Amino acid sequence: MAAGWEGDTDALAQVTDMQWSVRVLDAVTRQELYAVSPDLLLPTASVGKVLLLLTVAAQLESGELTPAMPLLRAPEDAVADSGLWQHLTADELSVHDLATLIGAVSDNYATNVLLRAVGLDAVDRTTDALGLKATRLHDRVRDRRTAQDPPTLSEGTASELADLMVELHHGEAISPAVSERVLGWLAAGADLSMVPEPLHLDPLGHADGDRGVRLWHKTGTDDGTRADVGLLQAGERALAWAVLCRWDPAGPDRRDEALAVMHAIGAALREQLGDALR
Q: Phi and psi of 137, rounded to 5°?
């Protein structure tokens, strides 16, 4: 473990009855800076949408899709919770706009429409091409899951997801063009409640950089689950992380404890950036 992460070890040690999978990397050198059970497979909620975005980007590059291609939402796509499209009157949006909604606000409606357009089999092929073994998008977003549905939207390990963020940084996630597209969609992510919270960036105005840093990340939220994977760059320094947390969703809400640990990790990231953060 690299210097500067002892506080996170203490924070995790104080949290009981919760599962964690954590990994932090120097995104430039690929050196591991901090890890806790990095190979533990946990639910990742909306983090799995990154695999959909990678599939969409790959199909845009191959010509199977075009950015302006309109997609119509259908009644079976409807789902609540995160997103804006459920509140809008437009029934048709372009592929690029739908991917942007997913990157910015984790839009569930947009996710289901794009997933219907490309197919889960295509996402599986992209996931395999990335060399991911445990990390998977299992299903569309659903308001309720029955015994016939996959038990969770997505799963992953911090080890694989942190590596994926490093590959995006180096332009190695499928191709440089695919990596660039996906990072473009993730740049506007507005949920700064988890790992990036101590950076105090503008949630709605950091896509082109704020306080001297660039942030690309994706969060996942579900009952008993908090997940955040990301990439932070300041000058020539870049850090990648995957922080996954799971507790019993039938028990007390443990989000305060989970977020406290995530904020401790974010504070350590901020310390690593030093004077680069203005």
A: -95, 120
